[in-house]
Amino acid sequence: MIKEQVSPEEVGRWMRLRYRLKIGWREPTAAIGLFLVLLFGYLIVVPIASLLFDSVQVQFGDVRRAKADLGELTWYYFDRALFSPVSKILFWEPLRHTLSVSFGAILVSLSVGGVLAWLLSRTDMFGRRWFATALIVPYMLPSWTFALAWRTLFKNRTVGGQAGWFENMGWTPPDWLAYGQLPITIILALHYTPFVILLFGNALRRFDSQLEDSARILGAGPRTVAWQIILPLMLPALMSATVLIFAKCLGEFGVSYVLGLPVNYDVLATSLYRSIASRQTGVAAVLAGAIMLIGIVSLLIDARLVRESRKFVTVGGKGSMNRQTALGKFRMPATALAGLIFFLSVGLPLMTLLLSTIMQVPGQFALSNFTLDYWIGSNLETVGLSSGILLSSELWSAMWNTLRIVGFASICSGIMGILVGYVVVRSPIKGVSIFLRQVTFFPYLVPGIAFAAAYLSLFAVERGPIPALYGTAAILILALMADQMPYASRAGISAMMQLGKDPEEAAQVAGAGWFRRMVTIVIPIQKGALVAGVLLPFISGIRGLSLFVILAIPSTDVLTTFSLRLLDYNYTQAANAVVLMISAIAYFGTLAAQRLTKTNLADGLGG
Amino acid sequence: MPNITLKHVNKSYDKNATNAVSDLNLEIGDGEFMCLLGPSGCGKTTTLRMIAGLENLTGGEIAVGDRVIDSIGKGVFVPPEQRGMGLVFQSYALWPHLTIEKNTDFGLRLRKVPKAEREERVNLVMKKLGIEQYRDRYPSQLSGGQQQRVALARMLAVNPEVLLLDEPLSNLDARLRLEMRTELKRIHGEFGTTIVFVTHDQWEAMTLATSIAVMHDGTLQQVGTPNDIYDRPANRFVAEFVGSPPINIIDQSPGNSRITDASRQYLKEYFPAISGADSLGLRPENIKLASQISDVPADHFAEEAFVAAILPTGGSWIIEVMVDDHKLFLTVNEPPQVSVGQQVWFHTSPAFMHLFDSDDQRLTAADDVIAEFCAAGESCAPSAAKAS
Ligand SMILES: Nc1ncnc2c1ncn2[C@@H]1O[C@H](COP(=O)(O)OP(=O)(O)O)[C@@H](O)[C@H]1O
Ligand SMILES: [Mg+2]
Predict the structure, then answer these.
(1) A85-353 adopts what CATH topology?
(2) Is the pTM of this model over 0.95?
(3) Ligand 1: residues whose CB is within 6 Å?
(4) DSSP A96
(5) With an 8 Å Cβ cutoff, are B79 and A509 in contact?
């Protein structure tokens, strides 16, 4: 063997650099990477930074109160939001409400969802396949669908407009039942139960029955097995579900808005909304920052739990088995329980909404009381619209806005997702990969409403070459796109990871340049991922509310904000009709996405 | 295509990581079937990918003939798509969205070969590899062996002058593997292609290669013909890596055990001019057994042992003998005449001894002594007789 070392130092620095450049810039990957870094730096990092600055800088109109000049550093907003006499209303009460609602919802959905998950994955309950899909449906619908249904049923004289069904039937529900904590908790619980079913079901299905059998053979009774084998192994899924539901409840706006507002039951998201609506930018920034912080901390906890639980992943060995428990005489009651949950979380609310749109007097089941006027009538004497919802030009303009804005944003984020995936996997510069991976994931940690506040803070005024975007469709598209990037880029990265480098390198060795490889190899193979990367954000965007409620104005109304506006006019039938339409689009869109991508809806539904 | 030359090639994936390949010097001649052999993680794939241009160098230079295609010092880098080589991936990397025919056709299309010629070429290659009946199927509809042949066909279609293969047979079952080995050897003969073949399987390397490069921890250990590698391993690593069951090593530090002392005594007598032997290697097939000392040829190294186990392997036998608590393996091709627990004499000719120094390098001086034994009529390994 020849042993004459050439030390690296002997090679000229310049040549080394030339070699590097030659490799790095040979292909557009590096340029695209740089472009994406700048783009997402601007769309994600800058708005959040701007929001955080807002919380410590004197805002327009606060010069006198903050006793400092415009733009100067100040603790005024922190003081006001966290320590002043009004802080109780602005922050502490809403925080308490948020926490109690979230924990209530977590408790209920864990117990209900846990039982259902077990019934679905480990027993011989009737109709398991059907229930496995049916019980997930609430998660596909906008959460405030249920809030509207609740309000339709339980509304009392505290709020004007049409009476609730029960009231018309002669019983006036008390406020504590009609509005506030109890209904919000129940509705959030119903909405997130599918989430528990999915998470738990997955964990249970992966759980190897042989683990139980081994314990049994060693003499453990069913109770010991449950406590010492099953529970510890399920703990990570349990904790993970807890944290994720909490993070989602944190940004939950619609339900609290519909059911909390009449009795001034504020949660953090609605308090933030009020601050923005009353132009208290600085306080809003503090609130948004707080929501963001809580969200980030809880998701970091989750990330940690997931890492912990990885240790268990290999547990399911070769002969992994999943044996079913025979329910025996409980088979019928168990099925009835699942049916009841389905009825409460899907059937009842949707039926209520549907009926409310075809009944003249709420809650009166006489044939003469039914009408299609609210859908297709004209010359109606209602406060909101003078014609049926389907004949209203505002609906169609909202529909068109929704398709246009959400559609465009979804197409952009789908394409960006694949590009991010490509660059993350292929970039010759490691820093670019890491930055892109993390920055595109960041919006996931930030509840939508706080993210919207950040966009408002950055784009409300003209900055440099960027004009003021507030009130345009552009701000909605940008915000939606950034908000959906976590899902889009995760899908893109995992698709590119799964594809691996080999097929592309094989084409490269065969003589194909970059562009050619993209067109003939990468894009055709990733077609499915691309479709999923467009459809899934589209569905979650269409039922999204919190971004729009902050950033949309009447001329950029989308379906969700339109229905909320109708509700504000107390035109319940029309609001319900619009929500039904959104639900239908979300439901059938999910089915279509599932069919097209041959994936389980369980996997992609993050939003 | 002229020779491919690697000069002082270095590769580290991370600034602080140890080199995946260090100071690799290798020349691959035209028309050669070169096997890169070594345990997993020793840098074979990295080397292959650097030749293809898929991995960048950290130092050194790669040239084809006089033309430098990759060099940090000269700031030259020819991208993989312009190197005109063929690479078969360990995972096959067939394009899942293209049929077998389209997969095979891809490179020709890129080269803008006229349609008629393309069809002819694709048909020829597919026929040669026995995959023409699958032409309209997609890769996922083929078995592993068939996919492997498509991967090969795809590269052969463009008739590259160099074909790089990364453990192409490792995912196949034993029978198919044997078949494909023959196939590869035939292709090599028929197409005259230079082949660089990566494997961790010594039998594959032995049976296929015209030349083997053994690697370990990113460094080249030895380059030579299969016989060279087997009969004259350059160091202990090569000696122990090649051969199954592995070579028996007898430590030569004094006072270690009965077998050590006896072998030291023997070497002093038969290799008087050789000093510095740190270990002695004996290949299992070169060790014989005798039931009495009187049956052992006078010039053989012999020692009393007892038979610990006899393992039939179908057609041959592995026998494990113990000299006190030192274990030796030997192989025989006839049914063994001994039984477990029996006291026997193992013995071996001095012509089959491998001596290594304290740096584990081969003591080549001993080879000259061995050549003399051979000249004197001792039975010898073919390459041992023509010592340097
Ligand atoms: N992409 C990579 N990034 C970092 N380290 C790598 C990469 N590929 C290989 N290595 C490391 O380089 C060494 C040599 O790897 P490789 O060439 O794949 O070995 P072989 O093919 O001989 O099994 C190993 O230690 C491996 O961990
Ligand atoms: Mg390898």
Answers:
(1) MetI-like fold (1.10.3720)
(2) no
(3) B 13, 20, 38, 40-46
(4) H
(5) no
